[in-house]
Design brief:
Elements lengths: L2 H15 L3 H12 L8 H6 L9 H5 L6 H14 L3 H22 L10 E2 L9 E2 L10 H21 L9 H18 L5
Antiparallel strand pairs: 1-2
Helix pairs in contact: 1-2, 1-6, 1-7, 2-5, 2-6, 5-6
The structure holds zinc ion.
Zinc ion (ZN) binds next to helix 6.
């Protein structure tokens, strides 16, 4: 699925289970970070017309969608948080929600399903794909993303923190203030 869907999936999970801003940020990033291997798209597009194109996206995309990398992310969560094991378990879960979302709804425009090489580079066993996989731009992804954004808005207004807090506390305060003002006026029955 798209990085936007992964981001909101991780953030909603983090908002529910995280005990502070740092935990929420780590759980959020755990849901996004597997796609870092997709950054190879940039050199690949830039060199497409050249004599020696760099096929980094085609070759490496999904190489971080693995148990090994999940272990790295989980370890980082363990080290950086106060609740160590609890945060590590939720980072592990968040990472795997990303894999699940890719498995069910990331078919490319060319029909390629981007199998998940779960045990790479240790073994080629457990390479996951699903025949019922829908396309990246199919309606279930749009519905899921819209639902996640709705839940996010509800959390921002009710609980007083937003996804922007991952990047900046000051900007987060401003977002919460303005959304509360807007929605509390628009919906007199309260959210
Ligand atoms: Zn992915």
């Amino acid at each position: 699925m798209s990085p936007v869907t992964h981001f909101f999936t991780g953030w909603v999970l983090g908002a529910i289970v995280g005990s502070d801003r740092r935990e929420r940020a780590i759980v959020t990033l755990a849901a996004v970070v597997p796609d870092v291997d997709g950054l190879g798209i940039i050199p690949e597009l830039l060199t497409r017309q050249s004599r020696h194109p760099l096929l980094w996206f085609s070759q490496f995309h999904h190489d971080l969608h693995t148990l090994l990398f999940a272990g790295v992310v989980t370890f980082v969560a363990f080290v950086l948080t106060a609740r160590r094991w609890t945060a590590a378990v939720f980072a592990f879960l968040s990472f795997h929600l990303h894999l699940l979302e890719d498995l069910v709804g990331s078919r490319g425009p060319d029909g390629f399903g981007w199998p998940i090489p779960y045990l790479f580079p240790l073994s080629s066993r457990w390479t996951w794909s699903w025949s019922g996989q829908w396309a990246l731009n199919a309606w279930p992804n749009l519905v899921l993303t819209a639902a996640l954004i709705s839940v996010t808005l509800w959390i921002v207004i009710r609980w007083g923190f937003s996804p922007v807090e991952v990047f900046s506390i000051a900007a987060d305060r401003a977002v919460v203030r303005s959304l509360r003002k807007r929605f509390e006026r628009a919906q007199p029955f309260g959210l």
